[in-house]
Write the structure tokens for this entry.
Amino acid sequence: MADRNDENARQARGSRDDRLKSALRENLKRRKAQARERAASADPSQADDGSLDEGTAGKADG
């Protein structure tokens, strides 16, 4: 009886692991595709005068 329970537990765990692996693989593929799209469509931020838009970082007061 205990052997059957152990075997069923191993099969259930293996099935769950397979589903998780598959889900993680699909998620990674989707994230990589999204990153490629963003990289292709987004150029570096540039202001109208052609300088890089750094916001307030790196600006000295005064």
Remarks:
- Residues 25 and 38 are 20 Å apart (CA to CA).
- The chain has a mean pLDDT of 80.
- The helical segments are 2-41.
- Residues 2-41 form the longest helix (40 residues).
